[in-house]
Automatic annotation (TrEMBL), chain A:
Superkingdom of the organism of origin: Bacteria
Keywords per UniProt: Cell membrane, Membrane, Transmembrane, Transmembrane helix, Transport
Native source organism of the sequence: Labedella endophytica
Record-linked InterPro entries: BPD_transp_1_N, MetI-like, MetI-like_sf
Domain ABC transmembrane type-1 positions: 95-300
Localization of this protein: Cell membrane
Family: Belongs to the binding-protein-dependent transport system permease family.
Any Pfam family hit: BPD_transp_1
UniProt KW Transport keyword: yes
Official protein name in the record: ABC transporter permease
Regions crossing the membrane: 12-30, 97-122, 134-161, 181-200, 239-261, 281-307
Topological category with respect to the lipid bilayer: Multi-pass membrane protein
Gene Ontology terms: biological process: transmembrane transport
TrEMBL record, chain B:
GO BP of this protein: transmembrane transport
Main location as per UniProt: membrane
Spans traversing the lipid bilayer: 33-53, 95-120, 132-151, 157-175, 214-240, 260-282
Membrane-topology descriptor: Multi-pass membrane protein
Gene3D superfamilies in UniProt: MetI-like (1.10.3720.10)
Species per Swiss-Prot/TrEMBL record: Labedella endophytica
Name the record gives this protein: ABC transporter permease
Region (Disordered): 1-24
TrEMBL record, chain C:
InterPro entries, sorted: AAA+_ATPase, ABC_transp_ATP-bind, ABC_transporter-like_ATP-bd, ABC_transporter-like_CS, Oligopep_ABC_C, P-loop_NTPase
CDD domains registered for this protein in UniProt: ABC_NikE_OppD_transporters
Annotated source species: Labedella endophytica
Homology family: Belongs to the ABC transporter superfamily.
Top-level taxon in the UniProt lineage: Bacteria
Gene Ontology terms: biological process: peptide transport; transmembrane transport
Transmembrane region(s): none
Domain ABC transporter: start-end pairs: 8-255, 333-589
Gene3D superfamilies recorded: P-loop containing nucleotide triphosphate hydrolases (3.40.50.300)
GO MF annotations in UniProt: ATP binding; ATP hydrolysis activity
Protein's UniProt keywords contain Transit peptide: no
Keywords attached to this entry: ATP-binding, Nucleotide-binding, Transport
Name of the protein in question: ABC transporter ATP-binding protein
Region (Disordered): 290-309
Length: 315, 297, 602
């Protein structure tokens, strides 16, 4: 168990190292000298040289990478070339917003999807199961921003029940914070719920065909009881997999919902920074997103070990 | 439900004709397959028709016709520049299908051979490929598209390539796990014992036997690519104006919410129909190809 | 449990799937403590019958008739799942065929045994845990307290089947249903598990319904037998009567095909079609004769220590003229000091590599024209040996020479000669044929590489078609088969396709890996006859790997017995079976149920 953990951790760090190097190299290809971007095309060569020396862009790429990595390890993302803003507090702030949005949406999705997916599987031959399955199938096909746009049209514009967007920090005004989150969380969560419902359904259907479930019935459990007692944990592995994949996709996928509801999340910051040609900010945000994705994959890997004793063997 | 019945087999009696459940299912395509194929057929026909004819030119602005509600002249109404929404939706299907084809094409052409190679050459090479794959997995397609947009400039081509590269890991994984299964079979041993080269085995045994899984993955990823392109265009990082794109139409409709809702309905419906079609097709094909998943309807 | 005069009473049980009748009007009754066997081949409806009794049939099948279990009230058919669930595991319980998948992989086995008691409230949770350990002890699991904490994947197949049995017996059911409980197990383990079943039901007075395809197994466990064919019980009665004086032609056919010691006038095994010439009473006579014959050697040869030195040299003691002729022929396969150590791939960055010694120093020769049998249980290394012989794997040390080609360190391209001379028939008749290729393409595949052909010149498409057609004809398949796909054929027919593919390039050595172990007995006899004919016709040297001593005995003239990567004994077949020198060989011979052995106890 310890060995497997250690090996996942090693793989986690190795992936992180290569991924950051990749981000760094990829963004050096970005057209435009950052000094020119920062000072404008009319800047004097002296001013440009001074700027480069100040921000360290005149040094070798390897050195720049090491300095950047050194900063990352200390939690220092550097200073934006464009706005001269310290990036660290900005990014930390934005990450929190995105994590709250994504976390709540996933929670909503799981609360809806797990029971519905099971129901759809158990009743897969009954009309109710077929209808459930059909709804989830359609739900998967609807883009979350369409749901967002429609929710705004109905509940904000027509009915005026909720604000159409914006963000208030929970510490400032918890009620307003919650009110503004309702629509975006529903928009993001409902489509996820449809996706996860389908995976729960097929995982449970698969489990229902297992020999050990027949054994459980032969022991005196009814179909439903056998599924609950013996099936759920076994269905857990594929469901955890898809939750991990979806969480990773949502971190960046939420950017569209952030746009619809004018929420200052990490994705919005990324899109803005791309628009501003803010190299260092783009680099830092991509690094944070990739770190989060790798972290999720790592946690999913750990979850397998907890769920399945067969994977605990240190072979 | 599988039953635990004994498989029909020769028992000294003549072989029963092949009428097992599996075969009957094979002969009758599932409802999902039919609906999925019809929806995609619809999108494809609309795309083809729009190449030669749309009711109005989708890119021409007519100031006099701004923001008209759906009518006999403009079935889906007109947008803020007076462009016909129906025409734009029709023309938008071209971009949608193009992005899907190119993105999935890139992912298949790169991912499948890598996956087969990793499956056939376990050991250093295989490990290396899969490690590389894991790293790529850390870059979701949408993120790649945004970064590529920053580096190379946003646009349809950038979006297609980025989404394609982002889908490579999925195909490499599927191809590898399928290859590992096939390589364990006795018919591959038999082929090796019959002196067939690795390349021939990959071509004659591995590829045909994993093709079903690949086709299913194609269908699923096509839907993902369509959604992602719409999202990118919604953000203004995908297809650039004036080329019509469903995602951008949705984004443009946002400011007229409450008064001109029809502007959101038409492109939204179009996206949903296309994605639903590919997802249904994928599920239907999976039912056909993967006997374990059969009768999941 | 109750005072009913039956454990189970089945009347007119009929199961249909749509318009197909799977089980047709089956009636039988099992008295408390009675042991009844239900035998039949695949598709006979025997498993459907047992599943119907347990109330576990899928909803898509419809049933009629009546099933009553002691303590379970009247007819159970059509009762609700909740109602049936109360009886399952308490009044009746079941042991399934597949020990590998029948237990929940994520739950400790002790909990799984305890659960059956807590479900039926026959014990408090704490007491159930305690009794579970006692039950695991009862079924002979070592260290029961520790085993209770193990997960299924940490146990062997035999051990898992013991856990299943412990579970099934926990609530003292009136009826125990065993569906092929030992089919997936090795013979020595099978014997232990069968003895355990027998002891458990006898001690508890449990009625036993034992489902199997294996006549010898049923004879060793049951008192009475039902023979099922195509959903109908064609014959029933006491074992002794049914097996020695069968009334129904199907029973006679099954007996004839199962009896690998009996051959017809042409020296071929009986099949269902030729069973008319078979005299079942010979089983009784043989059994009587064997009681006399087997007893003496097995009591005198019980000195394994002195034997091995004399034993390892193959073909050293020719017993017949045929073997004599073979032993003077030059070796076509020569194995010296062969070892194979697998390094199981390390997992992750810091994983440690595990070493598995699959073969530990083998020496033997196979001579041209010999029929060489290799017998061993799972894990004995026989499959590894076979892969190395076929050039699909490399020896770790030692050498193998096949027709003059040394396989040590040989590159893939040096193996052309080997591949031309040696071909393989595999165990799984479905898995060894590519489902996406037509039979014609499958059989023609070896012809595509010119190196495989004696002429060394690529065969033209027309030439290939001719060779394939000729080969299919030889293995008894219709010419039209070329256009069809593997799934359209039965198991036996698929094995014929596999044989055709192996022989199409006219190899000199044919390696057969358990080629009949997945087949029904009646088909088995046909395939064995075909193999024997082809070996004669093509002058092949046969290397036949099997876990089934009876099959090897029938087909081979020399046998090597493998265990844990070593050959413990080699010798001419008859000698090795009648007077096994090594203790393990004797265990194997004794553990293998044969009709003769079991009838002598009847």
């Amino acid at each position: 168990m310890a060995r497997r953990l250690l090996s996942s951790l090693g793989q986690f760090l190795a992936t992180l190292l290569v991924a950051t190097a990749l981000i760094f190299v990829m963004l050096r290809v970005m057209p435009g000298d950052p000094a020119v971007v920062a000072l404008g095309i009319n800047a004097t060569p002296e001013a440009l040289a001074q700027w480069r020396a100040e921000y360290g862009t005149d040094q070798s790429l390897a050195l720049q990478y090491l300095q950047w990595m050194g900063g990352l390890v200390r939690g220092d993302f550097g200073t934006s070339y464009v706005t001269s803003q310290d990036l660290s507090p900005l990014i930390v702030d934005r990450v929190q917003v995105t994590l709250i949005l994504v976390g709540l949406s996933m929670l909503l999705a799981l609360l809806v999807a797990v029971p519905l997916g099971m129901l759809a599987a158990i009743r897969h031959q009954h009309p109710s199961g077929v209808v459930l399955s059909g709804i989830s199938q359609v739900g998967v096909a609807v883009p979350n921003f369409l749901v967002g746009v429609l929710l705004v049209a109905v509940f904000a514009v027509h009915l005026g029940w909720f604000p159409s967007g914006g963000w208030v920090a929970p510490a400032d005004d918890p009620v307003e914070f919650a009110r503004r989150l309702v629509l975006p969380v529903i928009a993001l969560g409902s489509v996820q719920a449809a996706i996860i419902t389908r995976y729960v359904r097929s995982a449970v259907l698969e489990i229902m065909r297992e020999d050990f479930l027949r054994t459980a019935r032969a022991k005196g459990l009814t179909k439903g009881a056998a599924l609950v007692r013996h099936g759920l944990r076994n269905a857990g592995v594929p469901v955890v997999t898809i939750v991990g994949v979806q969480l990773a996709a949502m971190l960046i996928g939420s950017v569209v919902i952030e746009r619809v509801f004018v929420i200052p999340g990490l994705g919005s910051l990324l899109v803005d920074s791309v628009g501003n040609r803010d190299l260092l900010a783009v680099q830092a945000i991509v690094a944070v997103l990739v770190l989060l994705v790798i972290l999720i994959n790592f946690l999913v890997d750990l979850a397998y070990t907890v769920l399945d004793p067969r994977l605990r063997k240190a072979a | 439900m599988t039953t635990h019945l004994d498989a029909p087999d020769a028992t000294g009696v003549p072989v029963p004709p092949p009428t097992t459940t599996a075969r009957r299912k094979r002969a009758r395509p599932g409802i999902q397959l039919i609906i999925g194929a019809s929806l995609i057929g619809l999108v494809a026909i609309v795309a083809l028709v729009s190449l030669v004819w749309t009711p109005y030119d989708p890119e021409t602005t007519v100031a006099a016709d701004r923001l008209q509600f759906p009518s006999a002249a403009h079935w889906f109404g007109t947008d803020r520049f007076g462009r016909d929404v129906l025409s734009a939706v029709m023309a938008g299907s071209q971009i949608t299908l193009l992005v899907g084809f190119i993105a999935v094409g890139i992912a298949v052409v790169v991912g499948v051979p890598l996956g087969i190679l990793a499956g056939m050459r376990q050991g250093r090479l295989g490990d290396l490929i899969m490690r590389g794959n894991d790293i790529l997995l850390a870059f979701p397609g949408l993120l790649l598209a945004i970064v590529f947009g920053a580096v190379f400039g946003a646009g349809t081509v950038t979006a297609m390539v980025a989404l394609g590269i982002g889908s490579i890991p999925a195909f490499a994984r599927v191809a590898r796990s399928g290859t590992l299964q096939v390589m364990k079979t006795d018919y591959v041993f038999a082929a090796r014992a019959a002196n067939r080269s690795e390349f021939r085995i990959a071509l004659r045994h591995v590829l045909p036997n994993i093709s079903g899984m690949i086709v299913v993955q194609c269908s699923v990823n096509f839907g993902i690519a369509v959604l992602a392109e719409a999202g990118l265009s919604f953000l203004g990082l995908g297809t650039m104006p004036p080329t019509p794109s469903w995602g951008r139409m949705l984004q443009e409709s946002q400011q007229f919410l409450g008064s001109y809702d029809y502007l959101a309905i038409a492109p939204g419906l179009a996206i949903a129909v296309a994605v639903l079609g590919f997802n249904l097709l994928g599920d239907g094909l999976r039912d056909r190809f993967d006997p374990k998943m059969r009768s999941n309807r | 449990m109750t005072s009913a005069d039956f454990a189970v009473d089945v009347r007119g049980l009929t199961v249909t799937a749509g318009s197909t009748t799977l089980v047709d009007d089956v009636t039988f009754r099992i008295a408390p403590g009675e042991r009844v066997g239900l035998i039949g081949e695949s598709g006979s409806g025997k498993s459907v019958t047992s599943t119907a009794i347990m109330g576990l049939l899928p909803d898509t099948l419809s049933t009629s008739g009546s099933v009553s279990v002691a303590g379970g009230g009247d007819n159970l058919l059509g009762k609700s799942d909740a109602r049936l669930a109360r009886l399952r595991g308490s009044a009746m319980s079941m042991v399934f065929q597949e020990p590998m998948t029948a237990l929940n992989p994520l739950m400790r086995v002790g909990r799984q045994v305890a659960e059956i008691m807590t479900i039926h409230r026959t014990a408090s949770p704490a007491e159930a845990d305690r009794r579970a350990v006692a039950l695991l002890d009862d079924v002979g699991l070592p260290n029961p307290a520790e085993t209770a904490k193990a997960y299924p994947h940490q146990l062997s197949g035999g051990q898992r089947q013991r856990v299943m049995l412990a579970m099934a017996l926990a609530n003292d059911p009136a009826l125990l249903v065993c569906d092929e409980p030992t089919t997936a197990l090795d013979v020595t383990v099978q014997k232990q598990v069968l003895d355990l079943v027998l002891r458990a039901v006898t001690e508890r007075g449990t009625g036993l319904l034992f489902i199997t395809h294996d006549l010898a197994v049923v004879a060793s466990v049951c008192e009475r037998v039902l023979v099922m064919n195509a959903g109908v019980v064609v014959e029933e009665g006491p074992i002794e009567t049914v097996f020695t004086r069968p009334q129904h032609p199907y029973t006679r056919g099954l007996l004839a095909a199962s009896d690998l010691t009996a051959t017809d006038a042409g020296g071929r095994l009986f099949t269902i079609a030729t069973a008319a010439g078979y005299d079942p009473a010979r089983l009784r006579r043989d059994a009587d004769a064997e009681t006399a014959a087997v007893d003496s050697p097995s009591s005198t040869v019980r000195t394994p220590a002195e034997a091995p030195a004399a034993v390892v040299e193959p073909s050293a003691a020719p017993v017949s003229e045929a073997a004599d002729a073979v032993s003077t022929a030059p070796p076509i396969v020569s194995v010296r000091g062969l070892t194979k150590t697998y390094v199981r791939s390390r997992s992750g960055l810091f994983g440690r590599a595990a070493r598995v010694e699959a073969l530990r120093g083998l020496d033997f020769d196979i001579r041209e024209g010999e029929r060489f049998g290799i017998v061993g249980e799972s894990g004995s290394g026989k499959s590894t040996l076979l892969r190395i012989l076929s050039g699909l794997d490399q020896p770790t040390s030692g050498d193998v020479e096949v027709v003059g080609t040394s396989l040590r360190g040989a590159k893939e391209r040096d193996l052309g000669e080997l591949r031309r001379t040696l071909q393989i028939v595999f165990q799984d008749p479905m898995g060894s044929l590519d489902p996406r290729m037509s039979v014609g393409d499958i059989v023609a595949e070896p012809l595509l590489n010119p190196a495989n052909l004696r002429s060394g010149v690529a065969a033209s498409p027309a030439e290939r078609r001719r060779l394939v057609a000729e080969m299919l004809d030889h293995v008894g398949l219709p010419a039209a088969s070329v256009e069809r796909f593997p799934h359209e054929f039965s198991g036996g027919q698929r094995q014929r396709i596999s044989i055709a593919r192996a022989l199409v390039c006219r190899p000199r050595v044919l390696v057969a890996d358990e080629p009949v172990s997945a087949l029904d007995v009646s088909v088995r006899a046909q395939v064995l006859n075909l193999l024997a004919d082809l070996v004669d016709e093509y002058g092949l040297t046969l290397v036949f790997v099997s876990h089934d001593l009876g099959v090897v005995r029938h087909l081979c003239d020399t046998v090597a017995v493998m265990r844990a990567g070593e050959i413990v004994e080699t010798g001419p077949t008859e000698q090795l079976y009648d007077a096994p020198a090594h203790e393990y060989t004797r265990q194997l011979v004794l553990a293998t149920p044969t009709l003769q052995h079991t009838l002598e106890n009847a």
